[in-house]
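Risk register update: the risk that structure generation would not scale has been downgraded. Supporting records follow, first protein first.
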Amino acid sequence: MFVMWIYLFMLVITVAGNNIERATYCYGDNSAGSNIVNITCTSGAVYINDVIAATKPSSLSCAPEDHVGTPAPYEKCCTYNESDCMKSYSGSWDAFRGCIGKVSCTGVPVIRDEPICSQGGFPRFSNHMILEYYCMPPGVIFGPCSTSADCNDPSAMCNKTYCACQPGYTTFYAFDDCWKDGGLNGSCTGPVGCQDANTYCNFTSGRCQCDVGYIAHNGSCREGGHNLGFCKDTADCTDPQALCDTSVCVCKDGYTAFEEFDDCWKDGSFNGSCTDSSGCYDNITVCNTTVNRCTCREGYSPYEGACYADGDLHGLCNNTSDCVDDNVECKNKRCTCIDGFRDIYGICQQDGHLNGYCEANVIECVDDNTTCQANKGVCECIQHFTEVDGVCKKDGDLGGKCVVNSNCTDEHAECVTLQSNPSLSVCSCIHNYTNIDGVCIKDGDLHGLCNVDSDCVDDNVECKNKTCKCIDGYRDKDGICQQDGHLNGYCEGGIIECVDDNATCQANKGVCECIQHFTEVDGVCKKDGDLGGKCVVNSNCTDEHAECVTLQSNPLLSVCSCIHNYTNIDGVCIKDGDLHGLCNVDSDCVDDNVECKNKTCKCIDGYRDIDGICQQDGHLNGYCEVGIIECVDDNTTCQVNKGVCECIEEFSEVDGVCKKDRDLGGVCEGDSNCKDKNADCLPLQSDPALSVCTCKVNYTNVDGTCIKDGTLFGVCSVTVVCTDNNTECNTSTSRCECTSGYTPDDGVCYADGDLHGHCKNDSDCVDANTTCVNQRCKCITNYRDIDDTCREDRHLDGFCDSNNDCVDANTECVDDVCGCISGYTAIRDACFKDGDLDGKCTEDSDCQDNNAFCEISSSNVAISVCKCKTNFTNIDGKCKLDRRLGGWCSASFSCLDANSNCSRDGICTCIAKYSEVNNICTKDEMEGGVCAGGNRMGQCSEDNTVCVADTQSQCAGSNCKPGLCKCKQDYSIGFDGSCTKDGDIGSECNMNNDCIDANAECTGTPSFCTCSTGYRNVEKDCIKDGDPGGNCKAGNICTDLHSICVNGTCICNDARNYVIKNGICERDDSYVSGKCDRNSCNDVNAECLGGKCVCKTGYSQSNGVCTIGDTSSVTSCNGSSPYNQLVPDCDSGSSPIVLAEYQRVKPAIENCPGEVDMYSNTIFTTCCSYADGDCRLHGSGADACTSADLVGSYTTYNVIDYICAEDDSVIDASTNDTVSNSPVYVTISKDDAGNTGVDKCSVTASCDTDMLVYLVFSNLIKVNSQCSQTLQIMEGTNFRNFDCDNNVANATTVAYTASSGFFFITINTFMQGSRFVFKIEAKEATASVDVECGDKAKSESPTSFKTCGPAPGRLHGYCSDDIICIDPHTTCKSGVCVCQDGYSISNLKCQKTATEDTTGKTAMLAVIIPIAILVAIGIAAVLFWIFKDKIRKRLCPKHEPAAPIKPVVEGPNPMNVKYTGSGVPSDVKVPKAMPPPWLNTGWSPSNEKFSGNLPNEHNPRNKLPPIIRPPGVAGTPMNMKYSGKLPKGSNTGNMVDYLLKEELEMNNNLNKKKPKTKKNRNSVSPTDISPDTTGERSGSKKSKKFKKALLGIKAKQGFELPRQQNYSQEGVFTPNQDFYRYPNGMHAVNGTPNFSQTVSGPFMSPNGHLPPLNNSIGSSSLYNGQPNIKTFDPRASWRTVGTVASVAVQPKIRRPSVIDIASVDDPFDVEHTELDSN
């Protein structure tokens, strides 16, 4: 039962016709009482499909669980969304088993898991669950039941409330059968294994399957799959050229297997079937007639299934010199590629080079721009590169591939045809331009072509070697000759240096360029942003008084320039009148101590310019010189390197005076920089750029110290009171002092007896660890005053000298005090790490544990610390969720995590066979779980996993031993949580190229290979939306005409027997329009013609099924079922022509719904398809509904009757189009046509003939009972109108006859929804009808029409090698049938030309000669009859057959043999005439009288005379003339479709004494040639007149057949590929059977056009249950190619046999040959 549960719950099921249900739940919503699963089926019973753990994106801020008091926002955080991160629950499904079979299921806990979304955009843990389930209908497996009788499966039982398999049986998915354990398709994971013969256990599926080479059939495994072996369908056949026909793997048409297990060899190719040399297609093989197979001809030898010429690659050789190909050597007597080269498409190509072999990571492609095509294993050009003359060149580059000029990237190139490969065009330079190193350069330009220096137009250029080149000392730089060593010129380190300022040699370029941040301006390198330097915007200029302006010499470059009233003075913009600025008089200069000298403002004597200010010599900031001009200001010194007086060290200038840094009034850098802690570092008012130490607000500088106003020693007044404890204001000094009983110490008034307070002895000191020293209370030994408390040395907050002194954990010595190290804070006399539990925090996000929050500490209100949230407990420094893995639990509060329980320590731990991996109880030996130990050390159970050592301490902080099960190489965790092959759909990826499927892309976080938008994953293939198997497109549209939208998926319409083949919907094999072979059509009213099932004569398809009638139909019901398609179905190349649209009535007894909305093939077949008795609503014929039919709750369904017409005979009147054929169908093909915009079609006959118009279909709609639309046929002044009252059409009645050869069809006021179909045909068979509509329509009739010619093959008609002249005494000359020599035309026939008889002797001779001949013949006949036995024994010795010949019983039926009596007497006299020696047994005499009664099954009267067929002739030759008499009572079904009229006439002439029916010579058909039934009966006197019979000819050459034409020759049977079926080994060529085969002749289907004669030659073995008949049918003419070597016929009784041999060119030039008795 455990195994059964595994299958019940672990397999994902797909249930057609049932929608999947989803129930979603957030974790911890117990505040609302919803922390349980509740599901209910309104119909059927619950079946669990999947239990899914899911998580929302982090961006939604959905809490993981515990929404106590604040339920989660359900719509946002707890509902299903396909973009969420999801995977099937990895834990046990035990909690959900009880739901199966119930109508509702409640109280199931919510599960929790860790999905694979461990990074990017998703939290690690799932935050809600999804329960997927189906509501199963009654009777099916898992469906509800009351007793076992309710269950549909005979091996099922009612398991209390639902149907389940009986013990010993297993089902694998919903609606599946119950399979016997150990039997075929049954479970094999239990102790029974697989019991059936030839089966094995597939451990992936857990089911018993057939061994390789065996096929499941009727519940057992049968050997098969090989050629001529058993099969069920073509998929079972292992040979790619084989198909399954009648449960046997046979070769496809055109292929032959010669024995069982042989390959299918292509006929006519090497090893393929043949009869003689013409049967082998190429020139390198010949037909070995001994084995009838194509073998290599002389000079060629076979190798790996092909013939190779001696000396060619793979051909024979003696030494390497015999091998003619490159890179080839002679090995083992064969020409073979040398090492490093391989045969690629018949050429030895070098490995790793273009067109050579490659293999990823083994043999890489080394040629430029090549890559290894993995699917081919060949180096090919990369994308956008094409092979040109053996090199990969970039498309569009010079010499690269192009199609049009615009493809070429060089503006001076054009697209021209490549001479070495005319099929390829490449880019080439235009006139006056030359390809110079891949660039088109104009002649005369630098590097262009030239003859003399004057041809070169550039500077510093001369003509050298016909090329314009730079002169010596100059080189080309960007198309300009630049001087070496100068800017933009050539340079080379240590040889040619760059001499220009700010230029450097770019080693990688070898060019002098400006150094970094310098740009060339007017040939000089200038610094960017400097005056005259490059800029883009004003802010780029470093001088604040400069702006960015365009350079006049180079408008593409902008430079920095001084603004107005500023002048560039030595590279600086100086304002006019400023120091060093322009001036005219002293008053122009605005600075102090400045005068105007030489138009420039300069310092007066005794002052010098120091940083733009005139400073006095020897003073602060003024000039100085040691020993000459000394610095005289306090705290200053002369900086020798500057020559300026500056403040000494630790002093800085403040308001022109040097003050000590950090002192009050001194320079500082930040508040903490000032020595006085009550001073701030504030900007100096006189110089805000300078900061100085200044007492804080409410502080006053008292003797160089900042004392707070109102504090001890601070300022006090009436408004400022003393605020320090125990102080009061001394009004005389305006200072605060200690009150009585307090003593000041270090700025604080201490009470007497306190630490630092006054004392007289130890007892006066009241603080802990203090003693009285010098009348002051001080700390005792090893304790010191730290923040007014005596702290023990070396402990937290105690004194220390170094870090080693501090003994408490996580402490260090800082400023002589032991404090917490960085990142730790003192909490309750201990150092806790900030953010850790009990550690310092300021807000919740500071706490490192996600399940902690920041709260105020009770022991120190000033510090907040991290504490575990509610329902979490501090376990070993981590907040563990109560009742979860690693968290607190108890007997009353059990663990909630899957696969965990409560330990003795009150901690939740994993159960047996599960281990904690990354805080999840993961099953051992599965992916992500711990590998097996013990005897199975290091093994994993899950597919595609291997054991990998753990180096990241993933098992509760330690390395997992012996390791973790991880996906093996080339596999990774897929989207579904299993190990998925890299590149497959669902596998992890980094980029789109990682995905194998062309329609997949790498998306998501983390990223997986998923089908692109518009595609659907179907068994790891991306199927496009709308395609079969894909999602339905918007509006439930499926793109395939034969697909329907079901449950959001496009499936093939199975109601019409369509299935998916090669991505499209095609008819299932053996159904109407589907593929077939032999008699494999499923429809009893269909036959296999041309490899396709078609309806038999008198039948047509209705919804894909053959039904009686000449028209096809399609039906549908009303309603939203996808089966309700009303689309006529025609094969490719033809279009439906609607004949009628109407409704039929389904009787009330069928209980059909008024509208069919369900997806049900059964309902469609019952309620929406035609059945006998369904009457036609509003009909007028015999099937019209009567009032009795319309009683009760009857329903209706829709019907369209149609025929399929070839596309080239149909024209849509709403288009501007033309068509020429006969007949032609003119129609409006779209229901929504509306106003077509086309008002006229012209109709023209191709020659002088009448045209017949039929109104096939018409449905013109009335509006408000008025008809404003008409169809008009107008022929000159004659016309006929068709309006809304002509909606009843008749496809067989002529509606109009046009005799002028031209007329119009006019469409007036055509409305939406209206439709019509006209059929127009020419009366003359050789004429066609030209219909032109819209813009193409003719405006008037042609002025004249040519006469319609005769039919091909008729007198004056067209003829050729393939179309012979069939009228008597005609021959083909210059492509026209004319009378033979000696004949002339009379009454449209060729008659013998009359010659004048000048004497009366001719008339007498005409009487005497025939009489003499008759007498001679009579005498010869008498002599022959007397001595016939002796003559026969001498000339034709008797060959004893293997068994007595019984012509009636075993052989074909004798014709016209004298015999009376009933049955077959034992003493029947067998005719003495013997067959030729090459014939087998089973023949009968021909042309002999026969009378009497034979058993019905051997009735000779329904067969044609037996004909002898030579062996080796495979099939029935076509067009063999037969001149013998047909037997009476012959069945027309056993006759040729068409006989030559002349032969029929000959029969009539030979039997003149018999009354006969007059035949219409111009209309010969099977019914016309029915044998005469009005003449003499069997046994009556027969005419003794000589009768000819054309018999079989044995020739060495094969039979050549006329090519099939697109019309039939009148009176001649046109070969049809479908006239019989082909067994194994036969094939057709160009639409006709091939008679050049030497294999056994074909079995002719009785459904064919040419049924076999009832004469058996050869084997009597059965094929497909019927005799393996080998026939030779002479009922139509045939010819040989080459010389006739021998002729064999069955000898006639009493007279020699006769054969007529006719010339192909002149069929009426007949040679009559009498044959001897052999």
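Supporting record for the second protein:
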Amino acid sequence: MEKQKSSSGEEQRSVDRGLLHTWKGYSCSVTPQKVLLSRPVLQAALGYKHGVLLVEGGQVYSFGELPWKQTAGTTSPDPILEAGLSGQKVVGVAAGGFHSGAVTEDGGVHMWGDNAHGQCGLSGLATVPNPTPVAVVDHPSDPASLGLQTQVKILELACGEQHTLALSARHEVWSWGTGPQLGLPGTGTSTTSSTHAATPPLTPTWRPQKVEHLAGRHVLQVACGAFHSLALVRCPISHPPPDKCGQCHQLLYTMTDKEDHVIISDNHRCPLLVETGKPAGEGEGEGECGADDNHHTTDDRRRSEGSPAGGKGGLLGQQQHQRQQEVKSSPSMPLLSSSTTQHGHSSPPRPPSSLSTHSTSNASSCVDAAAAATAGVGSPAQDEVTSSGSETTDAVPLPPPQDSEHPEPQQVQESSSGSRPEGGATAGAAAVLLQGQGPGTGSGSGPGAKNSPYPDEQAVKDYLKKLSDHSIADQATAKSPPLAQRSQVDAIADVFTPDEPQPLSSTSSLPSSSTSSIPSSMLMPAGAGGPGGPVGAALNSLVASCASVVGERVASTCEALSLRKVMSYYYQPTSSSSAASVASDSSANSTSSAPPGLVAAGGAGTQGDTAPDEALLNLEESIQKSCSLGDVRRQEEGEAQSRRLSLPGLLSQGRYAVQLLATSYGGMLSPRLLRRYSRSRVKAALLDAVLVADDDNLLPSLQTEVWSWGRGQEGQLGHGDLQSGSQPMCIKCLSNKEVLRIAAGAHHSVAITAQSQCYSWGSNSSGQLGHMETPSTIPRLAKLSEGIRVWDVGAGQQHTLLLADGDCFQPILYYSGQQVKEGAGQTSQESSGGYTQQPVLLPFCMNIGYVSSVCAGGQVCAALADKNVMGFIASLHELAAAERKCYCKLTSIKTQVLQPLLNADNLSTTLGPASTALLQTLIGRFNGVCQLTGQSAASLTALVRHLKDCKGMILLEHTHLFTDTYTEYSSALGDYLVMGGFQALAKPCQDVFGKGCEVVFKLVDSTDDTVPLPDLLLSLLHQPIKHLQEYTRMLLKLATCYEVDSADYQRLQEGCSRFESLVLHLKRKRKEADYTLHFWRSFPGKMTDSLRKPSRRLVCESSNKALTLQNAGRFSVNWFILFNDALVHAQGMAPYKNLFSTHHVFPLSSLWVDPISEEATGLNGLKLTTPEESFTLLTSSPMEKSKWLRSINQAVEQALSGGGAETSSLTSGVGPKADPPISRTASYTFYKEGRMKEATYEGRWLAGKPHGRGVVKWPDGRVYTGTFKNGLEDGFGEYILPSKNANKSDHYQGNWKEGKMHGFGTYRYATGEVYEGCFQDNMRHGHGMLRSGKLNSSSPSVFIGQWHADRKCGYGVLDDITRGEKYMGQWQDDLRHGNGVIVTQFGLYYEGGFSNNKMMGSGVLLSEDDTSFEGEFSEDWTLSGKGTLNMPNGDYIEGSFSGVWGSGLKISGSFYKPNLFDSDKDKKHTPRLGRLVVGAEDKWLGVFEEYWAKLGCHAADQGETSKAWDNIAVALSTNRQLHRDSPELRRSLSRSQHKALEGLEIIPQHTGPVTMEIYDNIRRYLIKACDTALHPLGRLLESLVGVYRMTYVGVGANRRLLPQAVSEIKSYLKRLFGIVRFLFPDLPDEGCVIPETADETTEAHLEVPRRVVSSSALLLPVLLPRLYPPLFTLYALDKEKEDDAYWECVSRLNKQSDQALLVFLGVNQKFWPASTANQGENQEVASSPKDGCFAAAVETLQQISTTFTPADKLQVIQQTFEEITQEVLALLKESFLWSMDDLFPVFLYVVLRARIRNLGSEVSLIEDLMDPCVMHGEHGIMFTTLKACYYQIQQERIT
């Protein structure tokens, strides 16, 4: 509390808080003693004769007998401060028998006290006098991390008599000390029949060790008894079974297709486990079991105990295990037997009484029978540990391999005297002997050796019969019930007599051990008789055949078989004396007292002094106990054959037959087969689902388990037996009890559940269990009066202290256990009196205050109490008690009413499917409320126990959980009420609970018999909502305990307001449900029944004629009903009996209402607008008009917000808005005739029309997703149109306008064609590209060009891939018409006229070898008419031609051969190209028209610049929004494009003439705009690049197309420059000079040339890099011959040295770079080196191939000249002026050394695209020099 209303503040708190009271016994004269301390006690812990106290501030005090203290007096009745903890803030303490522990705030552990057994975790000290730190260190299991240690943070401690447990922050358990209660491997103890004080002679575990069997589980609390331990564990989250191995990640199951069936094989053997070198089955939590090695049955736990004689628990067992590890040489080889005879044969090993916890099996509710399959110790009777600590087993005759007909019995040596029989060891022992014939039995017998004496199935049958006969005879001589000389199967068959229906549980009928618990010396080799050998395989096939044949007859009998009858047959108790005689005889005899069937049925023959009846009781209880994990896969080598199962019929019919065979012959059956047949079928609970998030960060968990381990001679482990175990096991019967707190006395255990029930088990010698079961080996409820709710517990040596709620909210104390007599002078030997029969109320509990927690230890009880300061403590206890009471009430309703109703057989048929589904939803929501209430109660209980403050109250921290859960429950309750569910539920309720339904009346607390049952059920299920008022009242009550200005007061008031709003909201919802139910009852009929829905609530209706339709007919009747989701308009004619013949439902989400002005019309009317119609409603008065307007608007607003309005109104306290938005999101299905009939639209609306983004779906499969405007598709959208082929559909994605495809888009046809381009009126119109077919189809082609009305029209390019042709020319009506060019992949080139898709008219045809024809054409490649045929050598023919080119021509004409003396001009008659092609200015007009249209211009340069910029801004924002909405489009933009978009938001602004600065801004803006396709300029540039590449790539890479390609680029530049001048009108025209600015005058002396405006300088840098690859390819093809000649000369000349080359080129010697040999001597050029002269200039010139634009290339040439000049200046050391005679040879040398491969192409590109303004300047001269060098090199000849 921050500021409580108290004058003394902290002083008052220290006086009234944390008062400790101690006492002994329960007599009326007992008076608690108050322990006086200066500070409040936060926690108390009691040992046998001492105690530890934690006070506020973190200090620790001890009191009582403290013999470990190094002081004169070891007894201190007054608390003394533990000085060793000074400076440490302790947060928790614990006390054991004679030692103590403390946990500090940083997670450290301090221990002190007796340390004889290592319980303090400090080696070398018998006692620890003062608190000493104990290091809890985690050693990583990763070999790479060896040597690294991690300090473990501890949350709490628990101390026993000889051990200590610690719970870490990671919710793992650590232990140290001595005994099996540590839960560690190798810490088992030999059990004795003596009392609890017996100390096993085991080595203590000094260092804290992690309890690996609980690793991976979330442990919530630990508790220690004297020699046993408990852990409260949160239930693990269930996952589906894995389909892959956790180690090697291979599939665990494989399927193989055969002819008529599928074989499913699980024969997976992990290679990683084999390589580790572990014995088969030996691994603790690793390999096969992994983290799930914590599920074990009682038999596994028995075998986990240590003994001096066997296993790893005892010393001898450890030595034997070490010897076995030494002998073992192969991972897969069985270990050799540790005992062999002199003859070399292994003697049958004695079944060990204990096995290591390393190798305990994992057997869950489905019992793993693999133990019986691999070793005789698989039977529980053989593994049982007796009270005298010894065991014995009889030998069984074993047929030798030579002759199976004459078995010779062998005798197993008995152990020490006083042993007891180990149970029936007939077939089980035989299996042991069989498996003992391992490697030492015969020569050559090993894994996989086929030396079995049973070669076939018949031999197996014979041997099994002999074995069973011998077993029965052996039983007859061992004082067992006579079985007459019959076979085992006959004996079992006689037991199958009809009894009450009780199926034979496979969970307890089979032994639950496994191969992992068997020493390898007892493993059967794969070839001998194991599951994988011939015997095992034959036996498994025998089992399978028996199961399939006998299954049908046996199954029904086994289903009805009573387990008790089977057990009474095998174990016939006569009397208590006979049982005693059996027990006494069993100590002297070595034979079994029970037949093997009893072993297999899950019982142990005798158990100490346990009576037979108790053995039967324990057997039945053991069916329900054991751990909670699934079975574990076992990987035996020889199991491949037997593990294959095909078709599951065998599993269903043969399960019981296999079970019977497994009782005696389990040792030879495949463990997998047994496991498959022993799986039980569990009926799923209906109310187990948790609807509230079970997050430990928010709420405490209710799904818990209790695990126990240690000594169990008193039954304190709770597993239904008296066995001990060092391995933690789950107490199965507590798994669904929602245990919240556990406590452990010396030899008993207690658990408190969320239902405030107390379960106890263990020793009951003094009545400490609270019931008269003596002793109780399973948890049982303590006997408490009805209404007593226990919420805290303390357990002492022989007593239990309970803290509970009674009739009032002040807690009360109950005591059960030993009475301690009062007397002076009593110290250690207290005189004990009687004991309680059941818990008794301590009368003084009301006088010590409000008890918050209790503890007990030794014979002392202690209670921590608080005084009621300003009512806060009382209010807090009242709130917690009310929550616990409510949870108990809700749990009773769930278990006593709801669960039986759901389990009723005829529920669905009585209620109907719809009502049943609503009921299931209601019960599910009820379960969620119940779960949340339980978690809240647990949290409040913990708050009262520890914090006692409101800061951690989940009612305040997580109010939204309560709001959401109760709102959902109230909605489900209202839905069921509205549909009349409670009236229909009355009959099933009477069928289940009887006509009186006393259970319902009792739970409702109703004594009025006249209340109808439906009302009672409604009241019963309304109880959780009533409980909400308690929250409001108690939070307000708590708030009054604080100052008004404190933060806690504000938080409590806010929480109170929220719950008050929730209560009011739920009351309003209940009222709406009642009103709606009354409406349905008042107006029954077909129409109202069709309108009845669970979530529909009535708002108002017009049956009182308050609302009428304007202009309605004279006899028409209109009825308007307003629901929370729709407005219903019913119509009819007055005279007819069926008044309302039609009705229509208008969803409120798509309804708009507007009031009609009374001044204009004089009417009280409302105008209603729906998507398809509008109508006017008239009201009778202005008041009615306002009422209906408000009701409709509120209903519409609530319908639009859904559940959001309810939540917002709860949190903010403000109701829904009065006026719903005119623009909204809603869904509507059109019903009237038209384009949208039966289509469903979901999206944005505006005043009754789709407006904004939405989705339309038609019944025929058409779907449109995109934007709307005024009810029509407008903007960007996607449209899917299914085709006749059901598997494919047309898909359009692009722009729309007024409901039609308009603008740019992509249309993917179902035929495979794809069109990407412009649309208009749903047709392809404008520029676009069509891809037809695919590469492997009949006619793949790509067309790009102009479209008109869905047809090709204008200029376009068609690439016909199959024909290898490309057409570039004019089109008309999808046909080639006009001038055009065709190039083919074979080098043919045609330009000329086309008509009707054919070459027709004048044309020019050229072939690859320069043969050409110029003349008339009539068909494709068909010459027809006059023309001239030119040969490559200059010869030509003139005349008439006819025929197909390449197929022979008919010529009528003259042949001409040029004269040798003719000039070259007269010789060549090559036709001039380019005359019959489409001009560059006429190409791609549609591309530019599309762009001008985006700017808002009808034609080029016809529009307003400001409007164009507005359109650009709109296009940018639209495209950016589109990319933001689409993840795919968003990913398509690069980071640079995102940055460019940010820069494009600023438009270059300027006034006056354009200066250099403005010009640079314009240039930078153009670069950014062209870098992204979201800008219209960038989109235009992208289109131009696309069409250019489409034209001149592939087949279009023809050298004769170079002039057209260059002309096209120049045309682009001209038209783009026109666009730029339109956007920037002040920009000067082409060739004009930009005036210099004032700041440029300072640089005038540098003679910088003035900037000339040109399209090349402005646009070529952004255009040419994108077009460079196809353009340069054309240049390379065109200059191929010249470049080859040039390169040949360069290659030859570069072989020369620098000196030779300089001499050859005639370079003036003074320009030769020189090296000075001696100072002052003449400089000479080294004759041998190459590439040493002018290296910098050469390297610079080589960069010309890495640039794109002519300007960049000219810049490289200029830098090359500068590098030459700099080097010459450095050489001459004086200024000079170049002359061309001197410069040209030097530059020629540099060009040669630069070795530029395609220099001719570079020169031609510069020449064609160079800016005209630099043609005659310095750059022009330099370029002319380079060009001259290129031609000079071609003519050079080396002489």
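The mean pLDDT is 75. On this basis the risk owner (M.S.) recommends closing the item.
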